[in-house]
Design a protein that fits this description.
Layout: H1 18-31, H2 44-51, H3 55-68, E1 71-74, E2 78-81, E3 122-123, H4 136-148, H5 162-176, E4 185-188, H6 191-201, E5 207-210, H7 215-223, E6 228-231, E7 233-234, E8 237-238, H8 240-244, E9 252-255, H9 269-282, E10 285-289, E11 313-318, E12 330-333, H10 336-349, H11 355-366, H12 369-392, E13 397-398, E14 406-410, H13 413-425, E15 428-429, E16 444-448, H14 454-471
Parallel strand pairs: 3-15, 5-6, 5-9, 9-10, 10-11
Antiparallel strand pairs: 1-2, 4-12, 7-8, 11-12, 13-14, 14-16
The structure holds pyridoxal-5'-phosphate.
Pyridoxal-5'-phosphate is lined by residues 106, 126-127, 190-192, 214, 256, 261, 289, 291, 318, 320, 325, 330.
Length: 473
């Protein structure tokens, strides 16, 4: 039987690996409807021969798109386009709706009173990254460059240093498939700061947030005087049907599609399409918190949601996971009208990151320091994630994908509390899933493994598994 021919045009001189070129162009054919749900793709052998590339390249590209949910493989019957909606139904709805208290869930909680040493326990924090000491030189070089730089005259551009905005636009396009210009980028003091800036200019009204979800986003929403609408999740990500049935005049939906915080699942391709369609129907924005997408270790990270709809999605990136949370630098990418509105407000308050910091971060990006940090941390996280999964999988279901710097395991509530109490006594604060939720009844542990030493992690796992083995009988 004749096989379909894919109109791929590969550039062998490009820096983009052939696997990504094949995956990106095939994904685009699905986005645009050239390939429709149920269509059969050429076999690996046929496509490799058609385009003149190795079979392994096609195989990797297909595996990537299967992992992302755009394609499905039927045993012995080939590879097909999955049943996802078409992006075409979303276009035409341009324009963005612009005009105009608590610990955020990162602090520890005391399950039992006192711990062994009477000192602060080591928190298995989901947000603390591992720092590769071999890359200290890159950090120092960046700051040396700042000290030698010509000091600019007057107040800086409130949207951020133009060179940094351009560099960030290139970075996000290269790493997350979001093609944008420097004018669409605003340099922030991190994700939460960027989200606060956005809430200042977004039409008043409630914000929908995943539950369980990033509690800091809920806190920022409430501090801005807005209501939080909790939306549940299922294994594909935010439950769009539950969102659809909510009557509130929701102005934005805050999601973590690449690596849902704290469940660690990836939003499927179909769910992405459905979410964008629902946001479009409501005239609401989607806020994409892309906090740790660099750290996917089995397949390449799925392109950002913002790559699917540049008018509807506000993208939030941060250096908190890749460089250091104390740096306080991040980036927001959105429609130019929003960026201009945010910059205008900022100009009066001067609440932008100081230029030496922006200048140092620019150097880290240009010199490849950030890429090196990400590469080495990814290797460490892959190893640690494997160790944690291996230790805990006999006792509960590992919910999270192999990504990021934490792992989420479902456990009955009584085990969660007992493990947390014993860990606390031994000097470890292990976060419970309930800390990230207001309405969801799921119970489990969220084990951050980035900010610890190997020895600390190994001791913490010993304490947890000993308790679990005893309690599970
Ligand atoms: C879900 C999520 N988003 C974003 C961030 C980073 O926030 P920021 O850039 O404000 O440090 C974190 C940090 O822990 C997080 O867990």
């Amino acid at each position: 039987m004749a096989h379909p021919v894919l109109p791929l045009s590969l550039d062998r001189s490009s820096d983009l690996p052939l696997v990504l070129q094949v995956a990106n162009q095939t994904r685009e054919l699905v986005h645009t409807g050239s390939l429709r749900p149920g269509d059969r793709l050429p076999s690996i052998r046929a496509l490799a021969a058609d385009v003149g590339i190795a079979r392994a390249v096609v195989e990797h590209a297909y595996d990537q798109l299967i992992a992302e949910g755009w394609l499905t493989a039927r045993r012995g019957a080939g590879t097909y386009v999955a049943q996802v909606g078409r992006l075409a139904v979303l276009t035409g709805a341009r324009g963005s709706p612009t005009t105009a208290t608590v610990n955020a869930g990162t602090g520890g909680s005391d399950p039992s009173g006192s711990n062994k040493a009477g000192s602060d326990p080591v928190r298995l924090d989901t947000g603390s990254p591992w720092m590769d000491p071999r890359h200290d030189a890159g950090w120092r070089r960046a700051w040396r460059e700042v000290s030698a730089a010509h000091i600019p005259r007057g107040y800086p551009d409130p949207a951020g240093l133009p060179e940094l905005r351009a560099e960030l636009a290139a970075y996000v396009s290269r790493t997350r498939g979001v093609s944008c210009t420097a004018e669409e980028v605003i340099v922030t003091g991190g994700t939460t700061h960027g989200f606060g800036l956005l809430l200042d200019v977004l039409t008043r009204g409630p914000i929908a947030i995943e539950d369980p979800g990033y509690r800091a986003a809920a806190a920022v929403t409430e501090q801005a005087g807005r209501a939080v609408i909790d939306v549940p999740l299922d294994s594909d990500g935010l439950d769009v049907r539950a969102l659809r049935s909510n009557r509130a005049d929701i102005r934005a939906v805050y999601v973590t599609p690449a690596h849902q915080h704290p469940l660690g699942i990836t939003m499927s391709a179909g769910r992405r399409i459905a979410l964008l369609a629902e946001a479009t129907r409501r005239g609401a924005m989607v806020v994409e918190d892309d906090y740790d997408s660099e750290f996917r270790y089995d397949v390449a990270p799925m392109p950002a949601l913002a790559a699917l709809d540049r008018d509807r999605v506000i993208y939030l990136g941060s250096a908190s996971k890749s460089v250091h949370p104390g740096l306080r630098i991040g980036w927001l990418i959105g429609p130019v009208d929003l960026v201009v509105a945010m910059s205008a407000r900022r100009a009066t308050r001067h609440d932008y990151p100081p230029w030496p910091l922006q200048r140092a971060f620019l150097s880290m990006l240009r010199e490849g320091h950030l890429d090196k940090l990400v590469r080495s941390a990814r290797r460490v996280y892959a190893g640690r994630s494997h160790v944690v999964a291996h230790a805990l999988s006999p006792y509960g279901k590992i919910i999270s994908r192999p990504a990021g710097m934490y792992l989420t395991v479902a456990l009955p509530g009584r085990l969660v509390e007992a493990v947390r109490t014993e860990s606390w006594r031994a000097g470890f604060d292990v976060p419970s899933l309930a800390e990230y939720s207001r309405t969801c009844g799921m119970t489990g542990l969220v084990i951050g493994f980035g900010g610890l030493t190997d020895e600390e992690l190994s001791r913490a796992l010993d304490v947890m598994t000993t308790a679990l083995a005893r309690l599970s009988g």
